[in-house]
Structure formats: structure tokens, C-alpha cells
Amino acid sequence: MDKIVTDWTNASELGGVFQRMAPFLKMYTSYSNRYAESMEILERLMNRNDKFVAELAACREKSGSQYKLPDLLIMPIQRIPRYSLLLGDLLRNTDPYHPDYLPLADALSKITEVATHINEEVRRMENIRKVEQMQEKGIKLANLIKPHRYLIKEGIAKV
């Protein structure tokens, strides 16, 4: 990618870079699945552990970063949508007859598929966590947690 940017001309092509990169972006799924839980843990630590808060502040000061830890932790979550926006802008501003037009369109499609995959997996994990919470609250049913089970509806049941 650096070489493409350094040697940029009107005939340069960027779509292939994103086409090749797209399959690897699915690795963000596991990070995204644990993000909400991680933020809850971080919030609890920050509310209960002054030493932890002081250490975070010291690390931030030492690094010279303007960002707090939650700001940094959200960045990987934002990356895929940003790629999608970037590719959409590139595609809109690329002549349909340019050699990079079709690769950009394909890359946008692949990045969109990755984003959809990540969102579906995050929703699936949220449902699994809700079922786990029901089990932990002592709902007296058979073991609710099975690989094939997911939450369909949440609410008060009337018989």
C-alpha cells in the first residue's frame, strides 16, 4: 500500500488492496463480540479501583496520547465502517471506465459482507449472553445454554 501511495498516478489502483484485505477483517468479529463486556468491566474497574484509574492516567500521560482508554478501545469497532465509507467515496469519485472502478466496487461489496457478518455475530452473541443471564438468574428450566439455542423474544410471559 505504501508503494501505491508513494508512486500514485491517475492510473493507480487501490481496489485490489482492499479486495485482498477483506477476508482478514473477519478477525474483528471476536473483538467486537467481547467489546460491550470489556467496556462493562472497564467501567466497573474505573468506578471501584482508584489505583487502576491512576495507572491509566499515568500511562496516558507517559504516552502523550489525547485519547482515554475507552476512546482507543472503540477504534477497531469503527474501522470496518470507515473502510466502507472510504470505499464508497472512492467509488463515487472514480470514473466508471477507470481500471480501478470494478475492483473498488468488489472491495466495497466484500467489506460490506464483512460488516454484515460482524454485526450478525455480535447480535448472536448478545442473544447467547441474554440466555446465560436468564440461566444465572435461576429460571427453573432445563439447561438453557445449548449451541443451537438463541433468544427469540424477551418479555413477560402470560399464560
From TrEMBL:
GO terms for biological process: intracellular signal transduction. It holds the Pfam family RhoGEF. Coiled coil: none annotated. InterPro entries: DBL_dom_sf, DH_dom, FYVE_RhoGEF_PH, GDS_CDC24_CS. PROSITE patterns: DH_1, DH_2. GO terms for molecular function: guanyl-nucleotide exchange factor activity. One of its GO terms (cellular component) is cytoplasm. Residues 1-121 form the DH domain. This is DH domain-containing protein.
